[in-house]
Recover the amino acids of this structure.
């Protein structure tokens, strides 16, 4: 039997009301006891957090994971890590005391702890995650599998390229020979998201050229077209709406891809970012 790896871990918790002391585990910080490895991982499913606090800022949590993760990878010694974490965690986010853990390997240990403490199995639900949330999760899954997610920009503020007050945020992107941005656009509920991105595209393209002195390749990730369950005939209304949204975005120089093409997109990112 292979020798197990001695590690230490702490849980990251969201505590919206310190008086009630109700909390949800949202992440795990795992460190090899020798100090050679440290990794922070947050949940991808915020349903339990939003059940406890419907107003929770999940985008802030995701940005926090990225920021702290980058600093952990840049840290030379394990000692400053705790000061870094304690200084960064706020807004109801707390860290538990350190506990020891014997893992078969560092990565398998992280996966086991996430399953045990954070992403605990829940009763099977008939409802599946859909819409934009499903598309964003699919993008993240593919980019993580390609090893590039931590190298990408997240929640890119369009106002940085257009004008103050622009509320649009682009899901993720990276720069190589040109700037590449990716936005999840769900067509399940209609075409409004597609029209909004089409409206914003000219300003974004011009802004990236002005600010970053490079070309922007803006990509919309949409669902593959589907039909109502049990109906073998195409849904004409849905097909018409789908085609309208796709053609509208393409008219404004937006590349439109489906989730079926994400593996290819992620592999291109891996090559371009030299991972």
């Amino acid at each position: 039997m292979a020798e197990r790896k001695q590690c230490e871990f702490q849980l990251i918790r969201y505590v919206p009301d310190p008086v009630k002391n109700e909390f949800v585990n949202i992440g795990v910080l795992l460190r090899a006891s020798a100090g050679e490895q440290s990794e922070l991982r947050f949940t991808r499913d915020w349903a339990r957090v939003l059940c406890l606090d419907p107003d929770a800022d999940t985008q802030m949590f995701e940005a926090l994971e990225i920021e702290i993760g980058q600093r952990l990878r840049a840290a030379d010694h394990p000692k400053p890590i705790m000061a870094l974490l304690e200084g960064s965690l706020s807004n109801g986010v707390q860290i538990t005391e350190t506990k020891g853990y014997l893992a078969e390997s560092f990565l398998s240990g992280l996966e086991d702890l996430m399953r045990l403490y954070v992403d605990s199995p829940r009763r099977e639900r008939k409802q599946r995650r859909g819409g934009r949330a499903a598309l964003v999760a699919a993008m993240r899954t593919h980019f993580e599998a390609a090893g590039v997610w931590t190298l990408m920009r997240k929640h890119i503020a369009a106002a940085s390229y257009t004008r103050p007050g622009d509320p649009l945020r682009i899901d993720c992107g990276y720069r190589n020979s040109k700037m590449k941005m990716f936005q999840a656009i769900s067509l399940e509920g209609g075409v409004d998201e597609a029209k909004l991105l089409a409206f914003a595209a000219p300003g974004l393209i011009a802004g990236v050229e002005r600010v970053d002195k490079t070309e922007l390749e803006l990509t919309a990730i949409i669902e593959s077209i589907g039909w109502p369950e049990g109906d073998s005939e195409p849904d004409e209304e849905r097909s018409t709406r789908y085609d309208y949204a796709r053609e509208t975005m393409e008219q404004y120089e937006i590349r439109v891809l489906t989730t079926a093409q994400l593996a290819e997109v992620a592999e291109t990112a891996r090559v371009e970012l030299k991972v």
Observations:
- Helices lie at 47-52, 58-74, 79-88, 106-118, 131-145, 192-211, 236-251, 262-272.
- Residues 227-233 have pLDDT under 50 and may be disordered.
- The longest helix spans residues 192-211.
